[in-house]
Structures are given as structure tokens and as C-alpha cells.
Write a structure and sequence with these properties.
It is a single chain. The protein is mainly α and 221 residues long. The protein is 76% helix and 0% strand. It is globular. The termini are far apart.
Length: 221
């Protein structure tokens, strides 16, 4: 009986290429980022939360929908908490089995988010009470959105992702425009432009990943 060599090399260059692509796909499925699980929860949180803020606290103090005063912020914070749980879950699954430089990059980047918002919260908590109610809300929202935008652009340099940089730059633009327009309008822009943009980016990246995973797909730099 002739022994079978399981470690025999592929019979042709085509088989070698197919084997490499198969292994790449397997690694990507284990450690790759699911863009829907990462971007969609935050997009929905901003779309719904800031949308309710606009409806309740519109421009010039206008009330479009007579919601309870506390409801928009509660909905926003609950949605953001759920989005954070999703993000942590995705990051933990992605980090399993990853060691060395990539592991440190992910850990440092995640801690940077926490420390950035800890600094923002302590600073704004000190000075925001000195402002009128509407200006106080605009300050919290604009500085928070600006911090998110900067973190995405910093992340683009770490992960070499053009998509993250474009997202951060887009959030910066709508944040500046919202501050210029004033309270109410800022909530609308962040809801539609920020939340909608996050949802759109997640879907586009997911579709791109599906196309790349096809047997005849070709990855482009």
C-alpha cells in the first residue's frame, strides 16, 4: 500500500495560489473586523439619539415633538452604551490569538478612547455649568463629536485605513458646520450626517468584504 503524503506540495502554481487565498480568507474570517457590528450600532445610536434631541430641542428653542425633557438624552446614552458593548465584543473576538505588535496597537488604541473621553468629561464637567442650557448642550455634543473624529483619524494612521480617515474628516466637517449654525442644527447634522454616515460606511465596507471574499474577487490596495 502506497503511503499518502499529506504535506506534499501543490501540484501546480494555480493550486498554490488557491491554497494561499484559502488560508488568507480563513485568517481574515478569524481576526477580521465585522464593519456592521462595529459601525452600525454607533450609527443607529447617533441617528436616533441626536435625532430625538433635534426634535425636542430644535433651533431657537423650538420644540418639534413634545417629548419629555429627559427622554432624548436617556435614549442617546442607552444606545451608546449598547454600541459600546458591541464594540468591546467585536474587539475582544478580533484580538483572540493575536499577539505582538498588533495586539499592543489594539490595546493602546482602545485605552486611548477611554482616556480621551475621561479627559473630555472632567474638563467639560468643570466649565459647562457656566454656560446657558442650550450652549452647554452644544459644548458637550461638539467636543464629544470632535474627539470621536480625531480618534478615527488617528486610528487611520495606526491601521492604515483611508476609510477611517475619511470618516473622521467628514465628522469634523459636520461638527464645525453644526457649531457654526448653533444648537438644534448641530443635533440634526450629527444625527443625519454622523449617524447616517456611520451606518452607510458600515454597509459599504460589509459589501466590499463580501465581494472580496468571492472566489474570483480581487483585493485592491
Amino acid at each position: 500500500m502506497t503511503p499518502v503524503d499529506d504535506d506534499a506540495p501543490p501540484a501546480s502554481p494555480a493550486e498554490s495560489l488557491a491554497l494561499i487565498q484559502q488560508e488568507q480568507a480563513a485568517v481574515t474570517s478569524r481576526v477580521g473586523l465585522n464593519p456592521l457590528a462595529y459601525y452600525l450600532p454607533w450609527g443607529v445610536a447617533w441617528l436616533v439619539g441626536y435625532g430625538l434631541l433635534f426634535l425636542r430641542y430644535g433651533p431657537d428653542g423650538r420644540i418639534f415633538v413634545g417629548l419629555p425633557d429627559w427622554l432624548p438624552l436617556v435614549v442617546l446614552f442607552v444606545c451608546m452604551a449598547l454600541a459600546m458593548v458591541s464594540t468591546v465584543g467585536v474587539s475582544v473576538r478580533r484580538g483572540r490569538g493575536v499577539e505582538g505588535r498588533s495586539s499592543w496597537q489594539g490595546t493602546a488604541y482602545g485605552l486611548s478612547w477611554f482616556l480621551a473621553f475621561a479627559g473630555v468629561g472632567s474638563t467639560l464637567g468643570r466649565f459647562a455649568p457656566l454656560l446657558p442650557d442650550q450652549e452647554r448642550g452644544l459644548l458637550w455634543a461638539s467636543v464629544s463629536v470632535g474627539t470621536v473624529a480625531v480618534m478615527y483619524m488617528a486610528g487611520s494612521a495606526i491601521w492604515l485605513s483611508r476609510d477611517m480617515f475619511v470618516l473622521g474628516a467628514w465628522l469634523t466637517v459636520i461638527n464645525i458646520a453644526g457649531v457654526a449654525l448653533g444648537p438644534g442644527w448641530h443635533s440634526l447634522l450629527v444625527s443625519l450626517g454622523g449617524g447616517g454616515g456611520l451606518c452607510l460606511l458600515g454597509v459599504l465596507l460589509w459589501l466590499r468584504g463580501r465581494r472580496s471574499a468571492q472566489p474570483d474577487g480581487r483585493r485592491r490596495g
